[in-house]
Design brief:
With 391 residues, this protein is an alpha+beta fold. The chain is 35% helix and 16% strand. The strands form 4 sheets. A 5-stranded mixed beta sheet has the order 5-4-1-6-7. Strands 8-11-12-13-14 form a 5-stranded antiparallel beta sheet.
């Protein structure tokens, strides 16, 4: 025999129906249904006022909130937002406080909720971000221990041509190794510029960049095709934290000088602009004394690297105690009968798997940690996620 199923509303209906038949007293009905007399009176009163609809549950939310923003204040925030659709809560409140400093205005978070409640905000699309940097921080004591690279922000020449100057400098001597506007900032146009600099000045031990393309990607380890090439050359791809340009302050300060010297105003054509870049680079390196160098010029403090650019790109080598797999054309490797996706930047490259626990294997490309594979759950986690959970 199946169990009988019932609900609170059915019980209320049965209770009122029995009461209306006057077969038992109210006390007996309360004892039978397991309710108190005040509860019984409540449901009888609601039935008398609203009929069967009175048996429905009502919201328990208070009708009035002591900290609720007054309607007049909400209206002023909404009206000002409609006049300035691009302003956020902070700007709206700053303007309202200036107009009426005696009024007590709500917090910025409250103003944001008011805008959201009235449909005056747009949800931002979540962006895939470059994984956190897990490598060492090079301080740089002598030339070529650390270089810095970046793009100095694009601008247009007089004929409307877009220029994105690529700049490379030595961290210790401030020597400006490159200031050139490639046709675009893609890997295929940027790599030849680095190759030209490597051939002329040799190889550094590390290059510090931001987290944007072509220096980094949202893939494992933040590696891009360009940084994979650097690793094969024995160069560590070091990245600053997102939103912290001060970690590349020396290079950014050079950009300010560059902007004042050759981009205000820009030249008429890309060729003329490149000639201006070359003149600036000569003056910056050979003639301009630098205060942080004891009023010496960067050229007086810089010397070329003894690590020469190889004619043949060397393979990444691993020691003993690891399993090596080469990344296939689809960006995957096969491990323990499962296909693991590591990214397109690593296609054709060998990666190493090292056991770090019973069911855990770390995945590396050269010295760069990429991910951790959990054999039990057959899942892959980015190295930054594994480190954050471990800590």
């Amino acid at each position: 025999m199946p169990w009988k199923e019932t609900c609170a509303m059915d019980e209320r209906i049965k209770f009122v129906a029995e009461h209306l038949r006057h077969e038992r007293s109210l006390s007996e009905l309360c004892l039978c249904y397991g309710i108190s007399r005040p509860t019984a009176y409540k449901w009888l009163e609601r039935y008398a006022l609203y009929g069967p609809a009175g048996f429905l549950e009502r919201s328990r939310a208070p009708k009035q909130h002591p900290n609720q923003t007054p309607a007049a204040i909400e209206a002023r925030i909404i009206v000002l937002r409609q006049r300035h659709p691009q302003w956020g809560p902070r700007k709206l409140l700053a303007r309202l406080e200036r107009e009426d400093p005696q009024q007590r205005w709500p917090a910025r978070s409250t103003a944001g909720e008011i805008l959201k409640r009235h449909g005056l905000t747009r949800a931002r699309r979540a962006r895939r971000r470059t994984p956190g940097y897990e490598g060492p921080r090079h301080q740089g004591v002598s030339p070529n221990e650390l270089w810095a690279a970046d793009f100095k922000g694009w601008f247009k020449t007089g004929d409307g041509y877009r220029v994105d100057p690529l700049t490379i400098s030595d961290w210790v001597s401030r020597y400006l190794l490159c200031c050139h506007g490639p046709e675009s900032i893609t890997y295929w146009h940027v790599r030849p510029q680095f190759e030209r600099v490597f051939r002329e000045y040799g190889l550094p031990w590390a290059i510090r960049t931001d987290n944007g393309p072509p220096f980094a990607s949202v893939g494992l380890g933040g590696l891009s095709r360009l940084s994979v090439w650097w690793v094969r050359l024995g160069i560590w791809p070091e990245r600053i934290r997102p939103g912290h340009p001060e970690e590349n302050a020396r290079h950014e300060r050079m950009h300010k000088t560059l902007k004042e010297a050759v981009t205000q105003p820009p030249q008429a054509t890309p060729r003329a602009q490149q000639e201006a870049f070359d003149r600036f680079r000569h003056e910056y390196n050979e003639l301009r004394p630098h205060e942080s160098l004891g009023m010496q010029t960067p050229a007086e403090c810089y010397r070329a690297s003894e690590r020469r650019f190889p004619e043949r790109l060397p393979e990444v080598e691993y020691g003993s105690g690891v399993e090596v797999r080469r990344v296939r054309s689809n960006g995957q490797i096969k491990w323990a009968g499962q296909m693991l996706f590591l990214g397109e930047a690593l296609i054709g490259e060998p990666v190493a798997l090292r056991q770090i626990d019973n069911d855990l294997w770390s995945i590396h490309f050269g010295p760069v940690p990429l991910a951790v594979y959990h054999a039990g759950s057959r899942s892959v986690k980015k190295w930054s996620q594994y480190r954050s959970q471990k800590v």
